[in-house]
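Translate structure to sequence.
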């Protein structure tokens, strides 16, 4: 997870009293001052039982932004950039990906790609960074390569060539319900 991070909940079971604002600030400082900087937190606050409700409500509306390093089987041209960048709130259909079928139900899901933008990689005509914002739960790897036709449309089908994802990073999670 890059960027500004993601919302999370910590449940304190069998608490005898509510934590004070001072205690919460102290917890935040202790986490952020740990020697190994694997996790950082900000804006830690007490929500009570409403936290779980907010998290569940936000799931449906949550948007995630990604940076994907992509290879295509032919040189990228300016028409390709315009095509992908012009697609806004595009609906895609995704069957459960082959890579997760062993643990997920075989369903067809409709998901939304809110926007895409291409960033060219200097010195290469077949590699690029694809920045995109999608509805939570979208299988990004499969959206790029198509998963043998199980995701349509895909970046590969839109560009009319083979597309492979080499690296994927989450750059932002938008969950408006936590802006309270």
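Result:
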């Amino acid at each position: 997870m890059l960027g500004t991070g993601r919302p999370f909940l910590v449940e304190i079971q069998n608490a005898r009293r509510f934590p004070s604002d001072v205690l919460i600030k102290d917890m935040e400082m202790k986490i952020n001052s740990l020697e190994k900087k694997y996790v950082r937190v900000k804006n830690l606050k007490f929500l009570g039982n409403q936290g779980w409700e907010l998290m569940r409500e936000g799931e449906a509306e949550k948007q995630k932004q990604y940076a994907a390093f992509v290879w295509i089987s032919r040189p990228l041209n300016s028409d390709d950039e315009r095509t992908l960048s012009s697609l806004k709130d595009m609906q895609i259909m995704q069957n459960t990906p082959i890579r997760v079928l062993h643990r997920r139900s075989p369903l067809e899901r409709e998901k939304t790609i809110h926007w895409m933008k291409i960033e060219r990689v200097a010195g290469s005509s077949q590699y690029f960074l694809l920045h995109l914002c999608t509805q939570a739960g979208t299988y990004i790897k499969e959206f790029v390569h198509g998963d043998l036709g199980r995701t349509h449309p895909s970046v590969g089908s839109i560009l009319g060539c083979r597309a492979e994802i080499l690296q994927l990073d989450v750059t932002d999670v938008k969950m408006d319900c936590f802006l309270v």
